[in-house]
Amino acid sequence: MMEHNKPLFAAAILAVTAALAHIACIAIGGDAYRFLGAGEQLAQMAEQGHWYPTFITLMITGVLCLFAAYAASGARLLPKLPLLKLGLVGISSVFLLRALGFVFIMPMFPENSVTFWLASSSICLLIGLLYAVGSYKLIRA
Question: pTM to 2 decimals?
């Protein structure tokens, strides 16, 4: 019997959790956007029923769900997905670049709080490291 890849299992759980947090923003509205540090402008747009916060949040949720599926596939919880190893390395790179490169993208989103950047970057670093370690284990197997 094959053993599950624990880092990828944990990465899948965290990616799903992040996706659910984004869905909660849509369901709860402006207060959730504020609590998660997405910025006052986005929170106000959500309160006014503007389409943009929901759209962007659903796009992020979709990507996080796809990333979770790849982690679950690498952990042998789902069938093998196409380009699994390459996909996992790419996903770990995305999370790690987001975690470490936040200083460069902060000016593009001035409405986001420092708390948002530090918290979300720390979470991305953790998830990225789990993907990287899990990818390494999968490739070496």
Answer: 0.90
